[in-house]
Amino acid sequence: MEHALSPPTLSELRRPRPYPAVSVLTPTHRREPDSTQDRVRLRNVVAEAKKQLEADPSVTRERRVDVAEQLDRALAEVDLTHAEDGLVIFAAPGEHQVWSLARPVPERVVLSDTFLTRNLVSAQAAERPFWVLSVSADRVTLWNGGGDRVAEAHTGGFPLVRSRENFDAERMERIGDLPSTFRDEGTRHFLRDAHTAMTRLLRQNPRPLYVTGEPAALSLLDEFGGAVRDAVHIAHGGLAHASAEAVWQAVRPLHDAEARRDTAAVAGHLESARGHRTFAAGVDEVWQSAREGRVRLLAVEENYRVTVRDDGDHLVPAMSGDLDARDDIVDEIVEQCLEKGAEVHFVPDGALGDANGIAGVLRY
């Protein structure tokens, strides 16, 4: 199952497909007793997708069989023992993907000529993704971070591993020969290669970066300059060979502190916007501004959800299941704002006060 949404991946998901491109969304649960019905619910929504394929006269028999097979293959790949809060299946002629999201999604089936990506985009923004680069003299490991976890990332050429006869970086650490290890010309070349690979990846997929390693290793990276030098450095050795949990525990205090600073900065921007009359609050007002491309900064409380319908001029409250109800309007707004160059920040519940869960700073 997929978790990390990079800009190239998003562009690939958004390209037009031969009709039908099927998007299947269903909420999932991390714990019992709610998780016990996830498997049945997933099978039912996939069955509903197949029923819609059967009923659509514009879908040829050949394509119907192809996409149904892709749905079955996707279903077989789902591992609900590691379920998060939402699951998305994409299926089109000759291809399928399964995405696990750390953000709830409404249950729905969509047949179109593109995949429905708004829920992936919103989940990615809510997780505040970041990179962790853990360096040692013989291994450089990249970690994909977001939400409350990190996982090893096999992308951009990482991990980088260096082997050499009679070379034992861990032994050198134990006997105190580490500074000379990082002055070794071979080690310098190895870490310069890691620096080059990380710089290239940040151009393709920019995120905040944390770098962990012994002080001697971090000093060497400082000499190379660029984005890696400007990252947050954590003087903690051994993490290139460590577990994901150990890396997360090392990074978490700084990551949490950064999140608190971000929330405070967002509050300041919103307060200033009130004084300059460039403030919008509430789902209807923010939605109208987002459609017009006027939102410069969007703030959303982490668990804010609302179901609405469009009465032609405004969004009005609705019940899930009502005709024309829009259960994921918040995710729709997030995607619209990101596409038009706005900053999007998710903040703790209650942080927006009387703004009713969602607010924005307007360009004009």
Would you summarize the structure shown here?
By secondary structure, this protein is an alpha+beta fold. Helices cover 42% and strands 22% of the residues.
What would you note in describing this structure?
42% of the residues lie in helices and 22% in strands. It has 12 helices and 16 strands. It has helices at residues 7-14, 38-55, 61-77, 118-127, 169-175, 178-183, 185-204, 215-224, 226-229, 244-276, 283-291, 329-339, and strands at residues 21-27, 86-92, 95-101, 108-112, 130-135, 139-146, 149-152, 160-161, 209-213, 232-235, 279-281, 295-301, 308-310, 315-317, 343-347, 358-362.
Structural key phrases:
12 helices, 364 residues, four-stranded antiparallel beta sheet, alpha+beta, globular, six-stranded mixed beta sheet
